[in-house]
Amino acid sequence: MLSVVYAFESFSHILSCLNCVHGQEAIDILKACHEGPTGGHHGANHTAKKVFDASFFWPTIYRDAHDMIKSHDTCQRQGKISQRDEMPQNAIQVYESFDVWGIDFMGPFPSSKGNKYILVAVDYFSKWVEAKALPMNDARVVVKFLKSIFSQLGTPRAIISDRGTHFCNDQFTRVKTKYGVTNRLATAYHPQTSGQVEVFNRGLKRILERTVGENRASWSDKLDDALWAFRTAFKTTIGSTPYKLVYKKSCHLPIELEHKAYWALKHVNFDLKIMGLDKMLQDDASVSATEGFLFWKSSELLSTAGVGLLYGNDFEHYIPNNHRKLQLNELHDQAYENSLIYKERTKKLHDSKIKNRISNDGDQVLLFNSRLKIFSRKLKTCWSGPFTITQVFPYGTIELSQPDGPNFKVNGHRVKLYFGGDIPSKVVPALHTIPMDK
């Protein structure tokens, strides 16, 4: 109604010169101004203005233009998907360390000592990261890498991966069955499912880019340092560092050990030149006594400074076992609580920026072909279909059916409602679909 009022107010001075039409004649004029040789497939407002310029008018012109363009097949197959089209966020919450791992490949990179890929595994609770430089990305190296993790950190309950052939094969399946591990596959063309790994991939790539400099072939030598930096970096999600959450103590960095050791030795006047002179003048017994006294004194000060010497003695203050267990449980529970709060806030912020879409069984939808987003072809539409929704799952996954093919699952982010038109007997033949999980 407001659009009609606006039209009357804006064009009242020329309404007397317009030809008033109605019924099928009005629809034919609207189609000609939208999809005709001079139409250009513009939006509703521009199409209505073109009708006015052609000296035609009827009261419901704006509403009719909007309804016609909304159900126009060609116009519905244009445009892209944005953040506002995403589905509501559903976080993967884990309570124990090393219960759920996300795994993925990075690369290929420039060859470094024969290595071109990095196989990455991230723990969903502690954010602990394992990574290894590899010459290839096949099933054999994946199985070997997983067995190494299992032997050091225990067998997880689940592994989340994409649908790459290096993760979907007989060797990988046999390992899962042997160790009783469940493999959760991400929805095709939806990397957000493996968000933990994707975040680490970006962080690791950023660290390597800034550490290798111009010598790009040295990235495999810098990988261990990059892992150390990542493990000792504070993570807002858990309110701690992955190292502290796993080992229940802070990691002593080289710069920390160097400065605290220097401070302790300075207070005991540990002069190496004098000690060397004493060794020359005193007998072996005296030297042993002196060294023993200095070792004890320096160890005491190092312990006070928070540094322990690597000579087999533990200089930490004595803490009863029950009290220490309580501290460790508090650290774990605090990390879990921080993770819950962080993910709730992230979900609230994310969901506030998206459209409120409702999909029902039986709706017709168009599917965004993400392959064309990566390998774009000019003047080719990225939307295929229409398909029919057969089932809507609670976590954003939608099952679609096609007339001449099996049902398949996609993320709701990749579909949009299709208005009007008949379902063709054969949709885009080059469409890449993922069969349903059995």
List keywords for this structure.
single chain; 438 residues; alpha/beta; Nucleotidyltransferase, domain 5; five-stranded mixed sheet; 14% strand; elongated; disordered C terminus; RNA-directed DNA polymerase; Reverse transcriptase domain-containing protein
Question: Can you describe this structure in just a few lines?
Answer:
The chain is built from 15 helices and twelve strands.
Structure description:
This protein has 438 residues and is an alpha/beta fold. The protein folds into four domains: 2-70, no CATH class; 100-242, Nucleotidyltransferase, domain 5 (2-Layer Sandwich), CATH 3.30.420; 254-304; 354-438, Roll (SH3 type barrels). The protein contains 15 helices and twelve strands. The chain has helices spanning 2-11, 23-35, 44-53, 61-70, 73-76, 139-153, 170-179, 195-212, 219-231, 242-247, 254-267, 272-281, 284-304, 321-351, 370-374, and strands at residues 19-20, 56-57, 100-106, 117-123, 129-134, 158-161, 182-185, 364-368, 383-392, 397-402, 405-411, 415-417. The strands form three sheets. A five-stranded mixed sheet has the order 5-4-3-6-7, sandwiched between helices. A five-stranded antiparallel sheet has the order 11-10-9-8-12, with no helix packed on it. β6, α7 (170-179) and β7 (182-185) form a beta-alpha-beta unit. The relative contact order is 0.09. Mean pLDDT is 73; it is low at 283-291, 293-297, 304-319 and 422-438.
